[in-house]
């Protein structure tokens, strides 16, 4: 709570003035808004009926590519994030390693998947490899940070007890740290799989391959019924993945 | 067997937890370390196996200078010092058996321990120890399913399977009820007798210390203020360790309770 009443009310007033000015600068052309609604209705109408058959081969190819991209980027991302996460846990590592790993995590978390994908497409060209790389980098940032935080929250006495037996460092990780963080990390891995599948559709739109690329092609050809079919397939798979991962997470707890 | 020379521990905050402790524990001696909270009891035993790095001073175990050891040497030395903790410090998500076998980690290689393929002799020893403390039927239970007293018994097994020559025991009974406390203390002392183990037991319960230890060392603000037999703890000594208080009840009750408990056991 801010003690000074002038400052307190002044801040509210300042925020209100800024909001009013900001709304004022947003130049809304009501004529265009009015035109937009019927256009939206036509757009939605052109989705029906969804056409699964005429482009089914490329839809299937796109879906399989997306799934493949999701699986290996999740696995690769998690495998790479483990050493980074261990290094970024304050109670495990030494200062220079800690700062280096935190920097890696910060960088990979700064950019959203779509920006990473644009970079990767520029570097390695169109195709699923760029998408895979973008998703892996994003996974490292996500998983590494949460792993580091979970390790920092672990019970230090259990860790001390294993150290006192004369265990080596890797044995200590395996016996004292891993059992404490594993259930949560399995859940987060499944959650990340979920995210990566959804992002694989987005990544495809900027050239990263997968179902997103198929979707973009459908829009470019004005094949809205095929696009609708693709969207339905994406929704269906996202729901299936979410349901399955939720079930597995409950089972692990 | 264990010799501590002029041990000093100063924390980074500037607090001096230990101010030049010198102490010798011969083979097979069970020594109780008493003193108020913050006297440095916990720091002292953690300096011995170097979970806490001493600031200066030397510690010798059977002639090996623990304070000068590198990483590998320290690992080998830690195998000979079993540690028992206040909150049991079992790895809760591992089974009882895995917890006991984790005491052998200093002896087996990484991959063997990773695949949980400990030598047959280790597994047999683990079963024997669990049987000795009456928990052999619990081997496959997860550690967090056990009660406090049972967990502490598993903690004892984990320390003993190291085949140590010294036990470092940190407040073994602080989280237990009075009856279980006595049982655990009795068990520790019996096992030390059976195996000719030396032990340093941190304990804040003066009566328990008097009942079970053959030697009591009193610590006050990082300095030893008493070192002698348990029956030498009179009001004057307790005042020196803990400060001014009416000690008559504490001293008087010991014998009566000891007898009563002897009958129960």
Strand and helix map with partners:
The complex is a heterodimer of chains A (253) and B (265).
Chain A: H1 5-25, H2 30-46, H3 56-87, H4 95-110, H5 113-124, H6 128-152, H7 156-164, H8 169-208, H9 211-220, H10 224-252
Helix pairs in contact in A: 3-6, 3-8, 3-9, 4-6, 5-6, 5-8, 6-8, 7-8, 8-9, 8-10, 9-10
Chain B: E1 2-10, E2 16-25, E3 30-34, H1 41-48, E4 56-61, E5 64-65, H2 71-79, E6 81-84, H3 96-101, H4 110-114, H5 120-132, H6 148-160, E7 166-170, H7 178-195, E8 198-202, H8 206-212, E9 215-220, E10 223-228, H9 235-242, H10 248-264
Parallel strand pairs in B: 3-8, 3-9, 6-7, 7-8
Antiparallel strand pairs in B: 1-2, 1-4, 4-5, 9-10
Describe, in plain words, how this protein is organized in 3D.
The complex is a heterodimer of chains A (253) and B (265). Chain A has 2 domains: 5-46, no CATH class; 56-252, MetI-like (MetI-like fold, Orthogonal Bundle). Helix content of chain A is 83%, strand content 0%. Chain A has helices at 5-25, 30-46, 56-87, 95-110, 113-124, 128-152, 156-164, 169-208, 211-220, 224-252. Chain A is globular. Chain A starts with a helix and ends with a helix. Chain B has 265 residues and is an alpha/beta fold. Chain B has 2 domains: 2-80 and 164-264, Rossmann fold, CATH 3.40.50.300; 90-163, no CATH class. Chain B has 10 helices and 10 strands. Chain B has helices at residues 41-48, 71-79, 96-101, 110-114, 120-132, 148-160, 178-195, 206-212, 235-242, 248-264, and strands spanning 2-10, 16-25, 30-34, 56-61, 64-65, 81-84, 166-170, 198-202, 215-220, 223-228. A 6-stranded mixed β-sheet of chain B has the order 6-7-8-3-9-10, sandwiched between helices. Chain B has a 4-stranded antiparallel β-sheet with strand order 2-1-4-5. Chain A binds chain B through residues 155, 157-158, 160-168, 170-172, 174-176, 179-180, 182-183, and chain B through 49, 51, 75-79, 81, 83, 85, 87, 89-94, 98, 102-107, 110, 113-114, 155, 158, 162, 168.
């Amino acid at each position: 709570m801010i003690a000074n009443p002038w400052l307190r009310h002044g801040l509210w007033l300042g925020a209100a003035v800024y909001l009013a000015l900001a709304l004022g600068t947003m130049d809304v052309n009501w004529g265009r808004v009015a035109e937009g609604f019927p256009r939206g209705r036509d757009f939605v109408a052109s989705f029906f009926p969804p056409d699964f058959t005429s482009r089914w081969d490329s839809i299937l190819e796109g879906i399989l590519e997306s799934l493949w991209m999701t699986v290996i980027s999740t696995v690769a991302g998690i495998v790479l994030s483990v050493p980074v996460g261990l290094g970024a846990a304050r109670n495990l590592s030494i200062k220079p390693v800690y700062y280096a790993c935190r920097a890696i995590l910060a960088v990979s978390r700064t950019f959203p998947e779509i920006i990473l994908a644009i970079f990767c497409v520029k570097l390695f060209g169109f195709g699923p490899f760029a998408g895979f790389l973008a998703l892996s980098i994003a996974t490292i940032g996500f998983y590494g940070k949460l792993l580091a935080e979970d390790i920092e929250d672990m019970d230090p006495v259990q860790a001390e007890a294993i150290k006192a037996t004369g265990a080596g460092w890797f044995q200590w990780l395996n016996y004292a740290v891993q059992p404490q963080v594993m259930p949560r990390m399995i859940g987060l891995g499944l959650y990340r799989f979920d995210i990566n599948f959804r992002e694989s559709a987005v990544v495809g739109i900027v050239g990263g391959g997968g179902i997103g690329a198929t979707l973009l092609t459908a829009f470019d050809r004005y094949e809205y019924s095929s696009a609708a079919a693709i969207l339905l397939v994406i929704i269906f798979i996202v729901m299936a993945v979410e349901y399955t991962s939720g079930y597995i997470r409950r089972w692990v707890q | 067997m264990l010799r501590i020379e002029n041990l000093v521990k100063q924390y980074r905050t500037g607090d001096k937890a230990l101010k030049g402790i010198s102490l010798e524990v011969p083979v097979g001696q069970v020594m109780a370390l008493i003193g108020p909270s913050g006297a440095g009891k916990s720091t002292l035993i953690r300096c011995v196996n170097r979970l806490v790095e001493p600031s200066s001073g030397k510690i010798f175990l059977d002639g090996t200078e623990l304070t000068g050891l590198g990483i590998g040497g320290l690992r080998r030395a830690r195998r000979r010092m079993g540690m028992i903790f206040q909150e049991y410090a079992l790895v809760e998500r591992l089974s009882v058996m895995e917890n006991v076998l984790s005491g052998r980690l200093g002896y087996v290689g990484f991959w063997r321990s990773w695949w949980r393929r400990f030598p047959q002799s280790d597994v047999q020893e683990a079963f024997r120890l669990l049987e000795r403390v009456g928990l052999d039927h619990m081997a496959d239970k997860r550690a967090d399913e056990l009660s406090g007293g049972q967990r502490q018994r598993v903690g004892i097994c984990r320390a003993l399977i190291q085949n140590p020559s010294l036990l470092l025991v940190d407040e073994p009974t602080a989280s237990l009820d009075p009856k279980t406390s006595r049982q655990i203390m009795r068990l520790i002392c019996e096992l030390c007798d059976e195996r000719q183990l030396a032990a340093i037991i941190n304990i804040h319960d003066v009566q328990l210390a008097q009942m079970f230890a053959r030697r009591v060392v009193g610590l006050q603000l990082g300095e030893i203020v008493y070192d002698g037999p348990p029956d030498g703890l009179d009001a004057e000594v307790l005042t020196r360790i803990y400060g001014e208080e009416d000690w008559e009840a504490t001293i008087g009750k010991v014998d009566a309770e000891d007898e009563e408990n002897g009958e129960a056991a």
